[in-house]
Known about the structure:
Layout: H1 2-73, H2 87-95, H3 105-112, H4 117-129
Amino acid sequence: MEMEMKDELSVTVERLAAAAGLLEQAVERLAERQSDAEASVGRIVATVEAELEVRLAAAEAQIAELKAAAVASVPVTVTHGRKTLPVAMVNLLAKQGVTVDSMEAGALDAALVSLSLEQRIAVKAQLMRAGLLG
């Protein structure tokens, strides 16, 4: 009986050793697959990065072209500063019957007749600074 138990135990140990060997082979195959997968991911990442760099360079070139075209198409104009008048100036003109949006040279001169020379000069200077008078 003891011999039978030894034989059974021996058979069981051999089966366990064979199973352990199969498990080791499976682990090795999995490790190989993982390293292959990591290498594939590395290649994919490198490819995507290269493609993004190409697209970024193309986008930057297009932006530069658009900026150059925008600069070339904008006419060079000389502006006289802001296009608004101070509130005090608008009120002074309103008292004389002149509105800023319907200002004509003749109407302006007629409206400013009652002002002193210094006041007329100041009003016209403000209108010129605002770009409303040429």
